[in-house]
Amino acid sequence: MDLAKHWRLRHARYRLEGQRNRLTGEVRFPPAPPLPGETEETWEPYILKGRGRVYSFSVVRQPPEGFEDQPPYLVALVRLDEGPLVTAQLTDCDPDQVAIDMPVEMVTRRLRDLGPTGLIVYGYKFRPIVS
């Protein structure tokens, strides 16, 4: 169990918090350290709206270790309205419902369970926009 890692990632996972460049307005996700030539003040925290469109997707039928109880499940690249491309699981839809350019929204859901005495990890997934 790596509680410290999950604690450090909580803003990105639960609020979809990225960063915005104070000079150019560019938005990036996930947050990253400054690049060479930049300072800590170059980027400011920025909470993304959590809406976007499916850029690409795939159905996972043979999951990696730790996700054996979830197949089949959908994984997508989502182009957020602010620009960043995010990899995330799609939820609340069947594989035959998903299409490229489908509008989606972020939801917080259980990602995995690290055992009977371990940590339950929550984070972001995307679902079709509910009207």
Compute the number of strand runs.
8
So what's the overall shape? Answer: globular
Helix content: under 10%
Structural category is mainly beta
Most strands sheet: 5 strands, antiparallel
Q: Strand-and-helix sequence, N→C? A: HHEEEEEEEE
Unreliable sequence segments: none
Strand content: 35-45%
Description of the molecule:
By secondary structure, this protein is mainly β. Helices cover 9% and strands 43% of the residues. It has two helices and eight strands; from the N terminus they run ααββββββββ. It has helices at residues 3-8, 10-15; strands spanning 17-21, 27-28, 43-47, 51-60, 73-80, 85-90, 103-113, 120-128. Strands 6-5-4-7-8 form a five-stranded antiparallel beta sheet. Strand 7 (103-113) and strand 8 form a beta hairpin. It starts with a helix and ends with a strand.
Descriptive keywords:
2 helices, mainly beta
Give the helices and strands, then pairings.
Elements: H1 3-8, H2 10-15, E1 17-21, E2 27-28, E3 43-47, E4 51-60, E5 73-80, E6 85-90, E7 103-113, E8 120-128
Antiparallel strand pairs: 1-2, 1-3, 4-5, 4-7, 5-6, 7-8
Short description, anyone?
This protein is mainly beta and 131 residues long. It contains two helices and eight strands, in the order ααββββββββ.
